[in-house]
Amino acid sequence: MSTTARAHWLGAGLSSGPGIRRLAVQGEPLTLWNRTVDKARQAIEGLASTAEVRAYDLPSLRAALAKGDIVVSMLPAPMHPEIARVCLDAGAHLVTTSYLSDAMRALDGEAKAKGLCLVNECGLDPGLDHMLAHKLVAEYRASSAYHADNRLSFRSYCGGFPKIPNEFRYKFSWSPLGVLRALRSPARALKEGAVREVPRVWQAIERFSVDGPGGAESFEAYPNRDSMPYVAEYGFDKAWPLETFVRGTLRLAGWSAAWQEIFATVGGLTDAQLEQLADRLWREHQYAAAEPDRVVLYVGLSATRPNGSTAFDRAYVMDEAGNAERSAMGVLVSLPATFAVDDVRAGTTAPGVHGAPRDAATIARWFDSLAAGGVHVRSMSR
After folding, report:
1. Which residues contact 107 (CB under 8 A, 6 or more apart)?
2. Could you give the residue numbers annotated as active site?
3. What is the pLDDT of residues 233-244, one digit of tens each?
4. pLDDT score of 179 more than 60
5. What is the structure's pLDDT at 55?
6. Residue 306: exposed, middle, or buried by beta-carbon count in 10 A (0-12, 13-18, 19+)?
7. Residue 193: helix, strand or coil by DSSP?
8. How far apart, in whole angstroms, are the C-alpha atoms of residue 103 and residue 78?
9. Quick check: 207 and 218 in contact, CB under 8 A?
10. Segment holding 71, helix H or strand E
11. I want to staple 100 with a disulfide (CB 3.0 to 4.6 A). Which of 3, 240, 274, 355 is the partner?
């Protein structure tokens, strides 16, 4: 593919800035689309960039797309199948940071036939978490510790919160509606060798400790969505004895106590009431301008021999803090999306519908690119 393919970045919210700026300074054609044009202009303020800025609506995007262009959507996930349809009709590629949905999977055949890439899960969670999981499983398979009889425990937790904790133990960088809806959803995970399902995620909150440079820090953790499809997704053999398998969310210690009132009411709210609550939480608990955030990602795998001794115990941890110039969430969500753009431009991504990269070479290259930007992953083995 030509390296002059124009990128169209949809959405200039708090999670987009670092990615927009990385693409803008590359000198390749770039158009920023946002409902508020002034907000998009702020994302490239001070840069020597020729990026265009336009007010977003789907018909305008459809009219602007040319064959070979690359759309990067930071818009809500339910909008992506429709955006994907516009891309397919125009002969354009698509990159998103959202979970790979059934509606997107259904477009795989058409994307392959047209030689187009629809690349999803190119953010933090989902994205970097998936890649570290694939990396861990591959390392375990290749290690001398590997044995089919070892009992395995896998945990993947991710959370974003204020760098300086507030009384509410949380702040919002976008609409709280998604967080509230997730709280009302059931969750499934494997604990003590059995699949456990809870109707409300706060019913499964537990303490979880993450080792850092200054010592261990205690968080609150709970399962998110359905963890079980990722057993196969991450390459675990069906025959491997699994003790624990959970993908979940991290929150600051004290979060569950601060949110008790919300837990008590959110389950019985109508959609309209939920939106009203989201509006109130946004007014009261959104990040202030230039307020630093923090993101912690933990992905760990351990293997225990039949005699109870530890055969393998390794974890990857990212603990990133934002500053006045950029948010940690923005860095870890939007930069991987730009790496996907690079791969599509270079022709190294095969046509079709994809989730996060699985191959070792691409994973290593993306994390090397993060390291070049000052973002590092700590490896911990015991």
Report:
1. 81, 84, 85, 88, 118, 353
2. 125
3. 999 999 999 999
4. yes
5. 93
6. exposed
7. coil
8. 10
9. yes
10. strand 70-73
11. 355
Q: How many angstroms separate the Cα of 56 from the Cα of each of 19, 39, 184, 366?
A: 18, 12, 31, 29
CATH number of 7-123+330-374: 3.40.50.720
What pLDDT shows up at residue 2?
46
Runs of H (alpha helix) within the chain: 17-26, 37-43, 58-64, 80-90, 102-105, 108-113, 128-142, 177-183, 229-233, 255-258, 260-266, 271-285, 328-346, 360-372
pTM of the model: 0.94
Q: Considering the chain, what is the average pLDDT of its residues?
A: 94
Select from 127, 122, 8, 13 the least CA-distant residue to 75: 13
The letter for the amino acid at 128 is L
Task: Say how far apart CA 223 and CA 227 lie, in whole Å.
Answer: 8
Domain boundaries, the chain: 7-123+330-374, 128-325
CA distance 98 to 22: 20
Count of alpha carbons within 13 angstroms of residue 79, beta-carbon side? 13
CATH of domain 128-325: 3.30.360.10
What pLDDT sits at residue 1? 44
pLDDT single digits (tens) 201-210: 999 999 999 9
Ramachandran bin of 343, using left for φ above 0, alpha for ψ from -120 to 50, beta for the remaining angles: alpha
